[in-house]
Design goal:
With 297 residues, this protein is of the alpha+beta class. The chain folds into 2 domains: 3-159, Ribosomal Protein S5, domain 2, CATH 3.30.230.10; 165-289, Alpha-Beta Plaits, CATH 3.30.70.890. The chain contains 10 helices and 12 strands. Strands 1, 2, 3, 4, 5, 6, 8 and 12 form an 8-stranded mixed beta sheet that branches. Helix 1 packs parallel to helix 2. The chain is globular, with a radius of gyration of 19 Å. The two termini are 13 Å apart. The model has no long low-confidence stretch (mean pLDDT 98). The structure holds 4-diphosphocytidyl-2-C-methyl-D-erythritol 2-phosphate and adenosine-5'-diphosphate. 4-diphosphocytidyl-2-C-methyl-D-erythritol 2-phosphate is lined by residues 12, 15, 24-26, 28, 30, 99, 101, 104, 135-137, 152-153, 178-179, 182, 253-254.
């Protein structure tokens, strides 16, 4: 028997970042939106815990105990006194280290897959608690859709989304380290009064009503100056997408993937075509949102 789980990437349509906390994390108002780029995680019984990965970026994915999917399987096995002897195969389509939560997605997917394979009977709240231990973004990968994340991003309130949004994602060469981007945020804001993060009512309304035009005006990412400081060439990518007709452009989370909101599917295709030949990114992908969370297929 084996179990396969499909799990989406995310874009942060608002990422408001507060001052660093004593534990090194930052309080956030993190508005997650799941987008239709997916990894698939297959779990099957094996002699020992092993991980393999396929896809264009597979070489960048660690296959040892540091893989977030392996950590998820171990965490669930430990709680239930089960031997974590499974083979985990990740079919990776989410850009790696790109600010789209690909590792978090694989962790949530592995958790759901192992839970089904082992018939642990864990409640959704128990799974969400394990997700939060694995990483700040992992609970959202489990639930998908759209949600406001507070605390370090793990305390979620789901948001109903009233329409479909059309996106283009420009995939950069190489990744950016999330801790390095938060560190750069701290360096850039040192000596300033960083306000407590708050979700934007206009942005939440745009999601609820499904208004692309309102969402375009409300998108924001406090990590964008830090990502641009570490990777100045991202400014050229943002300009190329805006020049091609995007209604708005921003860095996805900690980057370096950049996200472009398009008026409709046709506009998204044109923006992606232009970006692909712009010389400012490795490739460009179109995707719609919202997308469902980790789901057994
Ligand atoms: C920036 C965001 C936006 O959604 O995602 P990415 O763009 O990386 O995908 C997240 O906050 C990333 O969440 P995630 O990648 O799960 O981070 P974690 O594993 O929990 O933490 C990695 C490191 O990021 C920093 N970190 C993370 C979350 C947070 N609220 N404050 C932080 O300062 C800390 O330095 C921490 O040690
Ligand atoms: N299953 C996984 N898929 C991708 N990266 C992983 C995975 N497990 C661990 N990692 C590590 O996590 C880092 C961040 O990857 P990822 O989650 O894709 O990006 P981001 O945090 O920017 O959204 C990678 O550089 C890699 O070393």
């Amino acid at each position: 028997m084996s179990v396969t789980v499909r799990v989406p990437a995310k874009v942060n349509v608002q990422l408001a970042v507060g001052a660093p906390r004593p534990d090194g994390f930052h309080d956030l108002a993190n508005v997650f939106l799941a987008v239709g780029l997916y990894d698939e995680v297959n779990v099957s019984p094996a002699d020992a815990l092993t991980v393999t990965c396929s896809g264009p970026d597979a070489a960048q994915v660690p296959l040892d105990a540091g893989n977030l999917a392996a950590r998820a399987a171990l965490a669930l096995a430990e709680r239930h006194g089960i031997a974590p002897d499974v083979h985990i195969h990740i079919s990776k389509d989410i850009p790696v280290a790109g600010g789209m939560a690909g590792g978090s997605a694989d962790a949530a997917a592995a958790l759901v897959a192992c839970d089904a394979l082992w018939a642990t009977g864990a409640t959704r709240d128990e799974l969400l608690a394990i997700c939060a231990e694995l990483g700040s973004d992992v609970p959202f990968s489990l639930i998908g859709g759209a949600a406001l994340g507070v605390g370090r991003g793990e305390q979620l309130t789901p948001i109903d989304v009233g329409g479909t949004f059309h996106w283009v994602f420009a995939v950069a060469d190489g990744g950016l380290s999330t801790p390095a981007v938060y560190g750069e945020f701290d360096r850039l804001t040192a000596g300033t009064d960083v306000p407590a993060p708050e979700a934007s009512p206009a942005l939440l309304d745009a999601l609820r009503t499904g208004s692309t035009d309102v969402l375009a005006k409300a998108l924001s990412n406090d990590l964008q100056p830090a990502a641009l400081s570490l990777r100045p060439s991202l400014a050229d990518t943002l300009a190329a997408g805006t020049g091609a007709g995007a209604l708005a452009a921003l860095v996805s989370g900690s980057g370096p993937t950049t996200a472009f909101l398009a008026a409709d599917a046709e506009a998204a295709r044109k923006i992606a075509d232009t970006l692909r030949t712009s010389g400012t990114c490795r490739t460009a992908r179109v995707a719609v949102s919202p997308a469902p969370g980790a789901t057994i297929v």
